[in-house]
Amino acid sequence: MAKKNKPSRPKARTPRGFSDRLGAEIIKEREVLARISAVYESYGFDPLETPAFEYTDALGKFLPDVDRPNQGVFSLQDDDDQWISLRYDLTAPLARFVAQNFDPLPKPFRRYQVGPVWRNEKPGPGRFRQFTQCDADTVGAPAPYADAEICAMFCDAIEAAGVARNEFTVKVSNRKIVDGLFEKIGLASEEKWETRLNVMRSMDKFDRLGEVGVRHLLGGGRADESGDYTDGAKLDPEHIETVIAFLQSAEGDGDPLGNIEKLITGTKSGEDGVAELNGIKSAIPDFARRPIVIDCSVIRGLEYYTGPIFEADFNEAILDEKGKPVQIGSLGGGGRYDGLVARFKGVEVPAVGVSVGVSRLLTALELKKSLGANTAGPVVILALEKDQMASYQQMAMELRNAGVRAEVYLGGSNFAKQLKYADKRSSPVAVIQGPDERGAGEITIKDLALGAALSKDIEDNKAWREDQPAQFSAPRGDLVKAVKETLARER
RNA sequence: GCCGCCUUAGCUCAGUAGGUUAGAGCGCUAGAUUGUGGAUCUAGAGGUCCCUGGUUCGAAACCAGGAGGCGGUACCA
Questions:
Q1: Are A348 and A99 in contact (CB under 8 A)?
Q2: Residues A122 and A255 in one domain
Q3: Torsion angle of the four alpha carbons A139, A141, A147, A152, in this order, in degrees rounded to the nearest 10
């Protein structure tokens, strides 16, 4: 039964959570990154590049233990026995960089950074183990003015990336307000930190699980549809009411800040937080026309945010090819983290920043099909006579010099196959010169896009072939002109 | 990590109460239509039926373990 003599070959495949990318996809991402970077640069942020690997202790709490050194991050032990890890975001490397080069840097230090980051966790739709982030941070400036600027720039960057103003919302909250809530419900003391974490996790799920789900999580616990059970925070009923009211403060037509203020009145950090949000509001030009809302149901990272926090979300659910909603997560987010550099320096350095999740954004735009038609391929010059290759390459050169992407067909196939190739490359135009044209000093320009459009209502192939409505001839000397005119017509 | 479902051709999927040469559509390759892609016709290639082990005269099918995928859930800087 088993076949003999069959060599066992490795299976060609990409590791899970990673992906190959080709052609148009890369071009699109490059374009989106360029647009976001341009926004950051126009605000005066300088580009920074740091290596993919960092010493693991510089990245934070994920010191690899012997059992699970790769929990969350990809780590390996260098030949000098030190642990190094692939960066999981761009903020930790920034903190390291600032601490390392503190004295000569201008303060505040404004930098942006674009690049891949890696996380060793379960992949899902729009969720990869390698993805691109696009961050901008201001280090060394206290709240709220730097926060206001970052927040406004965040909106500009997302818009520049191709999401319209009415398609997304930047939600703003403040960690201090959440602290105020904890004071109100008696969770402020040191030994209650675990319950606090628990409550924050539950609150973070408000948008996904809704009021009912969060009530369960705050109380006794919740069983999900797969039968798994999550233990609850076991709060008193009245405290649950307070938390729910807090989460719902942004709903309805009232003013969210006012609602919050009533809930957390009398707490020091709560009032500080409200004041900071007011400061942000008043420091953003044309605030009312921007898609920014105060919404305290946003929690984000549990550990390090110390002040204002931002999160950008799509307004409407993203659907996949089958029309099913996809959990794609936020478009990006950020906030103030005054303690991060202190890990290295011992002194608190105030800092605030945002991160745009470019890979997610592109997945979403792809699903929403708002990135427009496919990027056109190159003009293909058919190679009908092998002894004329130099003259074909000459044509390609002329087109390139005129700024037109062009290539000569280099395979070994016949006429029909060459056109098929051009079709597959989604070439807009094919340039044809066989013996007939060459004798007459001409070329044939074939408008592939137009042909494709016309062919939709073609029935008789014979008539189609005889007419050839989508092509015309031109003098060899007019090559560039004729191609450019054809391309222009397609726009 | 936990729970559930799934894995047969490049893709989408049939299939058999365990029984010789495992199928379809699309795609692919080649040819026809006398130098023309998308139409039509003809032919062809391509499968360790996810892997390993077990039960059996016989396993793609049944059992166990593993891997991968999907969905939920937990964690998430």
A1: no
A2: yes
A3: -80
Going by C-alpha positions, the residue among A487, A241, A303 that lies closest to residue A377 is A487
Nucleotide nearest to A422 (CA to C1'): B37
Residue A486: phi and psi, rounded to 5, are -65, -45
CATH number of domain containing A421: 3.40.50.800
A119 touches strand B (CB under 7 A): yes
Q: Tell whether the model's pLDDT for residue A370 goes beyond 70.
A: no
Domain range holding A334? 24-52+87-185+235-368
> pLDDT of A132-158, one tens digit each?
899 999 999 887 899 999 999 999 999
Q: pTM (2 decimals)?
A: 0.81
pLDDT digits (tens, 9 = 90+) for A278-320: 999 999 988 888 999 999 888 887 678 899 999 998 887 776 6
Higher per-residue confidence, A471 vs A128: A471
- Asked whether the predicted pLDDT for residue A182 surpasses 70, the reply is yes
Q: How far is the CA of A6 from the C1' of B46 (A)?
A: 16
Do residues A350 and A425 share a domain?
no
Strand duo A168-174 + A221-223: pairing: unpaired
Instruction: Return the beta strands (E) in A153-276 as ranges.
Output: 168-174, 221-223, 229-231
Statement to judge: residues A31 and A146 lie in one domain: yes
Complex ipTM: 0.82
